[in-house]
Amino acid sequence: MKQSLRLAERPHVVIATPGRLADHLQSTDTFSINHIKFLVLDEADRLLESSFAEDLQIIFDKISQDRQTLLFSATLTDTIEQLKKLSSREPFFHQVKSE
């Protein structure tokens, strides 16, 4: 209850495990994360396991689509490598020729 009351104050920073955050989002209507512009997730190698899928889906359904998601991991797994390849983009350079 104490955490729910603090979350209702619309803090700028929320640090939570995915399961706990998903639980708050489902169990209370006084807390919203749709205004958050940055979502920071640590231990990304573990978060990408299927056991976190439901909690992450709840969070991503409630958070603004206009946000930046940052994933951190000290462990470089095959899954993280695949994610890196999927999300990395080559820089785009546009050169204008002067006459």
Work out the helicity level. 40-55%
**Class by helix and strand content?**
mainly alpha
Question: Distance N terminus to C terminus?
Answer: 68 Å
Number of helices: 5
Number of strand elements: 2
Low-pLDDT stretches? none
Strand content: 5-15%
Average of the residue pLDDT scores: 79
Query: What's the gyration radius in Å?
Result: 17 Å
Major beta-sheet overview: 2 strands, parallel
Shape verdict: globular
Question: Would you kindly provide a written description of the structure presented here, covering whatever features stand out?
Answer:
With 99 residues, the chain is mainly alpha-helical. It contains five helices and two strands; from the N terminus they run H-H-E-H-H-E-H. The protein has a two-stranded parallel ribbon with strand order 1-2. Helix 2 (18-27) packs across helix 4. The longest helix is centred in the N-terminal third of the chain and has 10 residues, at 18-27. It is globular and about 50 Å long. It starts with a helix and ends in a 12-residue tail after the last helix.
Features:
mainly alpha; two-stranded parallel sheet; 8% strand; globular
Give a topology summary.
Blueprint: H1 2-7, H2 18-27, E1 38-41, H3 44-47, H4 53-62, E2 68-71, H5 78-87
Helix pairs in contact: 2-4
Concise synopsis of the structure shown:
The chain is mainly alpha-helical. The chain is built from five helices and two strands.
